[in-house]
Amino acid sequence: MDNHTEQLADGVWRIELSFWLSAVVLANDGRGDAEGLTLVDAGTQGAGPRLVRSVRMAGLDPRAIGDVLLTHWHTDHAGGARRFADSSAAPSVWIGAEDLPVLSGAQTPGEAATDCSAVAGFLHRHVYRPPPPLSGAHPLPDGHVHAAAGGVRVVATPGHTAGHRALHLPERGVLIAGDAVMNLGRLRPSPGLLSSAQSQIRESIERLAALDFTVLSPMHGPPIDRRARERLAALIE
Ligand SMILES: [Zn+2]
Q1: How many A from CA of 194 to the centre of ligand 1?
Q2: What is the extent of the structural domain holding 144?
Q3: Structural domain count, the chain
Q4: Scanning 22, 53, 59, 218, which has the fewest C-beta atoms within 10 Å of its C-beta?
């Protein structure tokens, strides 16, 4: 295994795509790739080769990826999804319903922002580019349990984007937080400037802090495996 890939729990691998961005691979049977793999986030549009190489170096077959769960539409998470959707394995792509219109190209990022500040609104209209349009993605409902790594429960955590989803793996004690929080320098909530509705972020973090887990894996910055729940809860004290 290379130093870009880290096993977080049984059947759960974190893949570092760049020094600030990661994706997660889950074994559907909780171990290897025999029963297929699930990918959580697909990185930027150009992340594909690195992602495929890292999955291989973890001893897994990237062609076994059957489902791609996207935490949200931002291009650094969903940009690589079309490459997987177009591959011969033809995986299914899943994303929060509120983020589906941006992923499909039916809505612009500016239209997707809700109560953000003027600066955030400007960023969403002019700086955030939508990922390559992808049709045929499925909505990922709150509370849905995806069959991988002992069960992946979908947790609606709006604020960073309207359809943002975190993924809780209670059997593995892992919380994949998406961008609800970031661990760049220190653990912090999704910054208001990068968020579509800052007013919802606190409530979303409260929801996550009430869950049971020992490893917290944000998509930006390293995972936290010591006092993870306490450190998450401290953000909203
Ligand atoms: Zn984001």
Answers
A1: 7
A2: 5-234
A3: 1
A4: 59
